[in-house]
Amino acid sequence: MGYILEVNNLEKNYGDFVAVNKINMRVNQGEVFALLGHNGAGKSTLIKMILGLVNPTAGEILIDGLQYGPKSKDIKNLIGYLPERMNFYDNLSAWETLTFYAKLKGVSSARCKEALEQVGLAEVKHRRVGAFSKGMQQRLGLAQAIIHRPKLLVLDEPTTGLDPIGILELKEMIRTWNREGTTIFFSSHNLSDVQELAENMAIMNSGSMAAEGSLAKLKHDYKLMTRIEVRVSTDQIAMISSLERGANTMGQFEIHDNTLSCYCESQEKMAILQRLLKEGVEIEDFTVEEPGLDLVYQQVMK
């Protein structure tokens, strides 16, 4: 389907300070893509350039094949944006706030009702925004971001201010919007949310692109192995030890009491278990520990 976002050799300098250093990045149409990095890594500057709010020092950005300049208005109609902190007029209701954004974006008030229902604010649409909790204001921010049905939805720390139930509901909203064809590009410090939602991700460090790709690709790139632990009955230890010493070597396993453990590529798990069964090992229980995004992130940032 092509790319909804292309970033080519992008740079942003503030005097002698390099905020973004020769970034290259591709986001496919219709995927969920996450941007990761420590505070100060350059994520916010990159997002602002993607939104056309900050001009790059060098390089180019293409949104659905369009470049900022003469096509800036067309590009902004393609994008919905939720900033990390959304500020509204306290004396306006949620309905008044959203209809204001609808007029700015050339959308009918019927769509306002739909958007408020999608974010769970239909029942309080006439309540003043000043009386809203932080989580409710975040939901209203989501409503204004999706009201014009953008092709690319950019979310900056979208779970900020949401309680656990709100976070679960937001994840389901993201999945729903994505199924309907919207590409989701979000930044987050919550690695478990990223691992759960994102098909591909980019990790920034000190203004540069440190790593990019799917979790499976990053695990492969950094040689992170899956750990298998198999528990057998105590009376099998002697048999296993003889297998380890014999022709059918089990040298890849470590034996501790009645537990066997080894590290392998993720796709080798079943072959290893089948091999144990073939050798006559009676398995009482087993666990598989896959390396997660937290371990990938630690390796990238070393």
UniProtKB/TrEMBL annotation:
CDD domains: ABC_DR_subfamily_A. InterPro entries: AAA+_ATPase, ABC_transporter-like_ATP-bd, ABC_transporter-like_CS, P-loop_NTPase. It comes from the Bacteria. Keywords: ATP-binding, Nucleotide-binding, Transport. GO terms for molecular function: ATP binding. Residues 5-231 form the ABC transporter domain. PANTHER family: ABC TRANSPORTER, ATP-BINDING PROTEIN (PTHR43335:SF4). Belongs to the ABC transporter superfamily. This is ABC transporter ATP-binding protein. It comes from Desulfosporosinus nitroreducens.
